[in-house]
Amino acid sequence: MRRDALALLLLVLLAIALRAHDFGNPVIHVDEQYYLLVGDRMLHGARPYIDFWDRKPLGLFLLFEGMRLLPGDGILAYQWTATLFAAATAGLIALSARRLGARPLGAGAAASAYLLWLGFLSGRGGQSPVFYNLFMAAAGWAMLRLPDLAGRGDRRAIVRQGMAVCLLAGLAIQTKYTPAVEGAFFGLAHLRYLHRAGARLPLLGAAALGWALLGLVPTLAAIAWYHALGAEAFAQFWFSNFASVALRRGYPAAKIAGRLAGTAAQLSPFLVCAALGWRTRPAGRNGEHALAFGWLAAALVGYAMIGAFFDHYALPLLVPLAIIAAPALGRSRTARTGSALAAAILFAFHWGSEPDDRRSAQAVAAVMADHAGQGCAYVFAGDSILYHLSGSCVPTAYAFPSTLAYAAEQGATGIDEAAEVRRIMGTRPPVVVTMDQPLAPWNRESLTVMAPLLARDYRLALIEPREDSHELVYVRRDLAR
């Protein structure tokens, strides 16, 4: 126990060391900016999907709302919380790896690799998998006990564990819906081993029903809450959570291929070690290894479900991959050396290629704050956290900039995006923020509305670098100095 506590402490220190550079940076990734903005405004009565439109489950916004209760403006609070979640997940990876027969060295290396690779796949801040991976890692750690429990014929323990595992999966599902695939696999694995332990059909049926209900409880609670708000609120909730994703436009095949190639290249050390781990698995651990590989297969299905293949969509793969890779990392010096070399190359690449744009964000927010008393600023394209940093009111429920500005969302929001841009601009925002080069193809109809109004009514007041392009800050001409 003391050794495990010391190992966890070392993982916490490693997580802090890897993430400290970004502490206080409000623009690590566009997604977590929006989660924090919504969580903050929920404390003032805002309702997700009604006052702030998005597709993520309610649980994610509740999590950020809770973190916003911690001291400060919420930025350090969510980053420190994410750091602790990441370290705890790494600890569970190490414990799970031991169940596959990994040596302590391999388990520790796999846990450390998880923390490193989070940053390589856009998980160095508060992406949703950084949080829900903890729930899935805990569920997976428990699942790997199944061969032992079934071997002892302990049906009661399997039933109780299945309840806990499915509830953990349900919490993950309310952080993002794709873990439903992994949760289903965990449930089926428990059913299989319950049958092996000697359970008959009535117990199997009752367990399956009970576990499924427990997995659905968090989502059913969210559905019930929006149903209680009334038909219109429920319709908005249902459309944004379950219907709109099918309306999103696909990305060009070349872009998808590039994302897949980049992600596969970055995950290649895990893939090699996973293959070695299967070939050299210890005798008597076939059941645990089969469960771990089944978990990985389920995670891959979840990864493929949405089809956009952004690098952070691969973050859930890291947990089963690291566990599976651990035996090879413990037994093969070549595997450890190759993985360490890959980690060093990737660390140098990401360190040199990912700019720290916090100063730019603060400069843009300062212009917005100067005019906060003259109406709601509008971030057409750029960083939604600017509303939070400046204290500006938000002029639209579609405040995640890509929703109205970029082509991928055109026709998928349930509204006429260009008409919403026209309505917002009709309120004469004192400040408008946009990009000189979009992060994705423009929604041409929205841009057609925006461009002439900016040229006629606004004056460019500030240009700030943002990743590989620039944020442009326009101030209304009658307010410009």
In short:
This protein is mainly alpha-helical.
Rg on CA atoms, Å: 24 Å
The N- and C-terminal alpha carbons lie at a distance of: 65 Å
Helix content: 55-70%
Biggest beta sheet attributes = 4 strands, mixed
How many domains?
2
- Counting DSSP E segments of at least 2 residues, the number of strands comes to 4
Assembly level:
single chain
Structure description:
The protein is mostly helical and 481 residues long. It folds into two domains: 2-353, no CATH class; 358-476, no CATH class. The protein is 65% helix and 5% strand. The protein has helices spanning 2-19, 30-42, 58-68, 75-99, 104-120, 128-143, 146-151, 155-173, 180-196, 201-229, 231-243, 253-279, 286-306, 318-331, 333-353, 358-370, 385-390, 402-405, 417-426, 444-457; strands spanning 378-379, 431-435, 458-466, 469-476. It has a four-stranded mixed beta sheet with strand order 1-2-4-3. A hairpin with a 2-residue loop joins strand 3 (458-466) and strand 4. Helix 1 (2-19) runs parallel beside helix 5, helix 5 crosses helix 14 and helix 19 runs parallel beside helix 20 (444-457). The longest helix is centred in the middle third of the chain and has 29 residues, at 201-229. The radius of gyration is 24 Å and the shape is globular. The chain starts with a helix and ends in a 5-residue tail after the last strand. The model has no long low-confidence stretch (mean pLDDT 95).
Task: Summarize the helices and strands and which ones pair or pack.
Blueprint: H1 2-19, H2 30-42, H3 58-68, H4 75-99, H5 104-120, H6 128-143, H7 146-151, H8 155-173, H9 180-196, H10 201-229, H11 231-243, H12 253-279, H13 286-306, H14 318-331, H15 333-353, H16 358-370, E1 378-379, H17 385-390, H18 402-405, H19 417-426, E2 431-435, H20 444-457, E3 458-466, E4 469-476
Parallel strand pairs: 1-2
Antiparallel strand pairs: 2-4, 3-4
